Amino acid sequence: MELYFGVLNKRELGKIKETVEKLEILHINESISKKAVELIEEYSKSYRLKIPDALIGATSLCHRIELFTYNIKDFRFIEGLKLYRKLLKD
């Protein structure tokens, strides 16, 4: 959803749709929702964690996968979350 929300125009939307079709989509379920609530309780005031980022972080944690993001600052404080670092800089 975040990718679609941030598109600038129809051309960019087409590129994103084409890329997303190649990816495995991990849907929000009860365990992800519960984990996201825990993250909000723990980090929303101290680190300004927002709901979309809580859901993204919770999905990575629940599926035990690294999170690829260029927005490291939005996630680096989440305990146990592993960030994919091959192409990223702090």
What does this structure look like?
It is a single chain. This protein has 90 residues and is an all-alpha fold. It has helices at residues 2-5, 10-20, 30-47, 51-63. The chain has a domain at 27-74. Helix 3 crosses helix 4. The longest helix has 18 residues, at 30-47.
Please supply descriptive tags for the structure shown above.
90 residues, globular, mainly alpha, 0% strand
Topology:
Elements: H1 2-5, H2 10-20, H3 30-47, H4 51-63
Helix pairs in contact: 3-4
> What percentage of residues falls in helices of 4 or more residues?
40-55%
> What is the strand content?
under 5%
Q: Taking all residues together, what is the mean pLDDT? A: 92
SS-derived structural category: mainly alpha
Computed Rg: 14 Å
End-to-end C-alpha gap: 25 Å
> Which oligomeric state applies?
single chain
The main sheet comes to: none
Low-confidence stretches: none
- Summed up, the helix count is 4
Structural shape: globular
Helix/strand order, N-terminal first: HHHH
Number of strands: 0
In short:
The protein has 90 residues and is mainly alpha-helical.
